[in-house]
Design a protein that fits this description.
two-stranded parallel sheet, 3 helices, 65 residues, single chain, mainly alpha
Length: 65
């Protein structure tokens, strides 16, 4: 997998939720399709734990003070 990094190699990466949302902007997808889409678009492989954690708690829309 040349040029593809795993999300856990990037440390605690807060952007995983945004990557999932960006992938879903084109329409509904199952988990494998989301991880494949993210890997193709940005070169990061989301593991199942990262993916489903992002789906369970989407990014906050609240402004941080």
């Amino acid at each position: 997998m040349d040029g593809v990094r795993r999300a856990d190699e990037l440390g605690r990466w807060p952007g995983s939720g945004l990557l999932v949302l960006a992938s879903l902007a084109d329409g509904a997808k199952h988990g494998y399709a989301i991880t494949t889409n993210v890997a193709e678009q940005v070169g990061v492989t989301l593991g199942p734990g990262t993916l489903y954690a992002a789906l369970a708690s989407p990014p906050s829309t609240r402004a941080e003070a």
